[in-house]
Design brief:
The complex is a heterodimer of chains A (332) and B (165). With 332 residues, chain A is of the alpha/beta class. Chain A is built from 13 helices and 13 strands. The termini of chain A are far apart. By secondary structure, chain B is an alpha+beta fold. Chain B is globular, with a radius of gyration of 15 Å. The N and C termini of chain B lie far apart (35 Å). The chains are: A alpha/beta (332), B alpha+beta (165).
Chain lengths: 332, 165
């Protein structure tokens, strides 16, 4: 039987090997276009997706929007071909959702179900899809019911699966990882929801990884900087969490991460990509634009600019790019 | 370090006391502030009351917990409600060390578009949420749906909670 240290090492190594042999190849793995050295971020919008009453969006419209986003990102004309190019069919695919802000501002169930549906149609067994978040309350906020039956899509929280006894560390991040990430999943699709954050400023792709650790509150110092960047550098996170389908169907532009309906906004969008730093850079821009429209000061002016994004892009972390000139944004 | 441990133990004891009073519904100074189903016209209490000590508040509102801890939260109790099939709401009752802490939290969330309401010692409302302070308690009620009935229904629920203090 492997000891825990070996298990964590193997988990990271297998993820790297799987990445490098994947059909997208190394350039695409980093979200780089084959024709230009830029990280690709697709923002797919459907203004008719969501009404102003905070009811759930139309499921079919969400599925159609997801298809548009994924085909645009991969360049494949058909959604199934696109999915097959993104994920291995024979491994457990984790969907890391975010229900921290309660059901008012959680990853939408329609989006989670749409991703799960397309994964299954592409050939992933239902039991090889595992939806997870920090705890059961957060999963319930995403409309998910706990299920461990391997004949169906599985769903259970990080705390129920347990955390590794051994700490993982990188920089200031010294945490224990959920066994869902280290032992269950071969690849994780990151499914955050776009929000303002009282401490981090912006919470989206990288910040969503706080839900895979035992003590997320230990990473909140100094506006989560450099903790967010450091956490994402932990090999298992860096290597297994390789694709983000960001939920910007609705968003909270102030007062987050909790649900503040008076600060709710409907971008009616999905933000898709592989470069987590580029994704957060775009997310930050979108929130700033909305705050400006609402007459609110910038994040910097209120003392919570998401400085961790630049740190994640520096040479030491090298998680991606925050340079707008090196991000290829595709609006569809 | 020792001070932190003592604080953590005290927080747990106080939270346990708050939880016990909620569960038992005793009529001491720690009265259950959550109206039962049917007590407020149209509203049903749809879930058990959950209580979080300050040290565990991150499990409920990670990312927001720190501002409550800085303001002196002792424990947070929460319960879900339904208004027919139309509105779902959550009631959070934060027990703070003092009224100043409750006031500080209340002020931090107030925007220029908030409307003052006559609730507790002070309160304000938006279309889908109401907050008020009563003594050292801070109450936040949020509806998940925006309907024509939401503002009035929330106000009725808020008055029901206020009457419990």
């Amino acid at each position: 039987m492997k000891d825990r240290r070996q298990f964590l090492k193997d988990a990271a190594t297998s993820a790297v090997l799987m990445s490098s042999s994947g059909k997208l190849g190394m350039a695409a793995m980093l979200g780089k276009s084959a024709h230009e050295d830029k990280s690709k971020v697709v923002i797919a919008r459907d203004p008719s997706l969501h009404g102003a009453d905070n009811t759930q969006p139309d499921e079919q419209k969400v599925l159609t929007l997801l298809d548009r986003a994924i085909t645009s990102y991969t360049g494949h004309a058909k959604p199934m071909e696109a999915w097959k190019s993104l994920v291995p069919m024979d491994q457990v695919i984790g969907l890391k959702v975010n229900g921290l802000g309660s059901k008012g501002i959680a990853t939408h169930p329609a989006l989670i179900n749409a991703v799960a549906e397309r994964l299954q149609q592409a050939g992933v067994k239902p039991g090889n899809i595992l939806v997870f978040d920090q705890n059961g309350m957060f999963l319930a906020a995403c409309g998910m019911t706990v299920n461990r039956d391997p004949s169906r899509m599985r769903c259970y929280p990080s705390d129920a699966a347990g955390f590794e006894d051994e700490e993982s560390s990188w920089g200031v991040a010294r945490i224990r990882l959920t066994k869902i990430l280290t032992r269950e999943c071969g690849l994780v699709i990151n499914m955050p929801i776009l929000k303002d954050h009282q401490m981090a400023g912006v919470t989206f792709a990288m910040k969503n990884m706080y839900g895979v650790v035992d003590k997320p509150y230990s990473l909140h110092g100094n506006h989560c900087n450099p903790a967010v960047a450091d956490l994402n550098c932990i090999p298992v996170i860096r290597d297994k969490v390789r694709f983000t389908i960001g939920d910007a169907i609705s968003s909270v532009y102030d007062g987050g991460p909790a649900f503040h309906p008076e600060r709710l906004w409907y971008p009616n969008a999905l933000i898709v990509g592989q470069d987590r730093v580029a994704l957060d850079t775009i997310a930050w821009q979108m929130l700033e634009q909305q705050r400006a429209q609402a007459g609110l000061p910038t994040f910097a002016a209120v003392g919570r600019a998401p400085d961790y994004i630049a740190v994640a892009a520096d040479a030491q972390h090298a998680l991606g790019t925050n340079d707008p000139a090196r991000i290829h944004v595709v609006n569809i | 370090m020792r001070t932190r441990s003592v604080y953590r133990i005290l927080s747990c004891i106080l939270a346990a006391a708050a939880a016990a009073s909620v569960v038992s519904g005793c009529k001491s100074s720690h009265r259950d502030p959550f109206p039962a189903s049917g007590e407020i016209s149209g509203w049903t209490k749809s879930d058990e009351t959950r209580v979080f000590a300050a040290s565990d508040l991150w499990q409920y509102i990670d990312g927001d917990a720190e501002q409550y801890i800085k303001a002196g939260v002792i424990s947070t109790s929460t319960s879900d409600y339904k208004y027919g099939d139309q509105i779902e709401a959550v009631v959070d009752v934060h027990s703070m060390k003092d009224a100043a802490g409750a006031q500080r939290i209340m002020d931090s969330g107030r925007g220029p578009d908030a409307k003052s309401v006559s609730l507790g010692d002070a309160g304000y409302a938006y279309a889908q949420s109401i907050v008020f302070r009563k003594g050292h308690s801070f109450v936040r009620i949020v509806a998940y749906q925006s309907t024509p009935q939401t503002p009035q229904a929330l106000l009725a629920l808020a008055h029901g909670v206020e009457a419990k203090f």
